[in-house]
Amino acid sequence: MKQLALLSLLFTFSCAGVQTTSDSFSVHAESFVILGYEIPGEDVTAAEALVPEGATVTTMYSSPDDWTSVLGFLNNILGFHSTYISGTL
User: Fold this and answer.
1) What are the residue boundaries of the structural domains of the chain, listed by start?
2) What is the pTM of this model?
């Protein structure tokens, strides 16, 4: 039972969403990472899927998720990955 509660808790740490105005949009996606495994999945893919069709991307930021930098390594052991995309419609 404790394992199920822990697994449920891990899934609550991730989300994705989009906000739009008449001429711009902003997308975000986050995922919880433990030992390199992203829960519920890749944040970049989730954010890209929410970009409105026909929109022009002007800014994209994604947290480091590589194993070659100190920050990337620590975030892959236990941390959060996040991606933010914004642009015009």
Assistant:
1) 2-88
2) 0.76
